[in-house]
């Protein structure tokens, strides 16, 4: 049986039960949540799910999820996509980059710009700003995972991020993932 993939993205006012209602539909239809990210940002709930299943099941589920998101007050985008394996073809090295710094604008751009210059593709990126426990100083942390062509070594990535570390006054760690 051929398996196809959909990306479901939804955003709306946060409230309890959103995930349970949507995944009830998916589970009832035999659709697999292959990958997902969910977060509350401000007062808004945002989710991204990679769904996999038989083409006919995905087609019928698309309509049912659209109706449910309307009822839940969520803005929805549903898009056909490739399998994760097909999409990542050609990128043979994966690295994790962790950044810790005083919070200020431009850190995300500096790091992702360095990744782009090496031909890297960001696979996941999480950031958060928070206050230091004792001083209340605004701090920033980032966790980035990216795929790179085979000629990009960890040393080469570290060297590219050294400039970011200096200009952003940030601690940057690189490790294979």
Helix and strand layout, with pairings?
Elements: E1 4-13, H1 18-29, E2 32-41, E3 44-53, H2 55-72, E4 75-81, H3 84-87, E5 93-102, H4 107-117, E6 121-131, E7 138-148, H5 154-168, E8 170-176
Helix pairs in contact: 1-2, 4-5
Explain this structure to me?
The protein has 177 residues and is of the alpha+beta class. It folds into 2 domains: 4-85, 2-Layer Sandwich (Alpha-Beta Plaits), CATH 3.30.70.260; 93-176, ACT domain (Alpha-Beta Plaits). The protein has 5 helices and 8 strands, in the order E-H-E-E-H-E-H-E-H-E-E-H-E. The chain has helices at residues 18-29, 55-72, 84-87, 107-117, 154-168, and strands at residues 4-13, 32-41, 44-53, 75-81, 93-102, 121-131, 138-148, 170-176. The strands form 2 sheets. Strands 2-3-1-4 form a 4-stranded antiparallel β-sheet, covered by helices on one side. Helix 4 runs antiparallel to helix 5. The two termini are 32 Å apart.
């Amino acid at each position: 049986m051929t398996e196809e993939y959909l990306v479901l993205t939804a955003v709306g006012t946060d409230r309890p039960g959103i995930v349970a209602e949507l995944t009830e539909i998916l589970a009832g239809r035999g659709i697999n949540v292959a990958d997902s990210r969910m977060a509350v940002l401000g007062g808004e709930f945002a989710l991204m799910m990679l769904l996999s299943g038989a083409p006919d099941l995905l087609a019928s589920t698309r309509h049912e999820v659209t109706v449910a998101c309307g009822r839940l007050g969520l803005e929805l985008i549903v898009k056909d996509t490739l399998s994760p394996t097909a999409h990542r073809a050609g990128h043979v090295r994966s690295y994790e980059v962790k950044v810790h710094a005083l919070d200020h604008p431009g850190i995300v751009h500096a790091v992702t710009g360095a990744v782009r210059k090496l031909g890297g593709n960001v696979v996941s990126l999480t950031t958060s700003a928070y206050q230091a426990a004792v001083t209340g100083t605004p701090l920033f942390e980032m966790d980035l995972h990216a795929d790179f062509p085979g000629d990009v070594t960890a040393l080469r990535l570290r060297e590219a991020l050294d400039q970011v570390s200096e200009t952003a006054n940030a601690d940057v760690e690189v490790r294979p993932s």
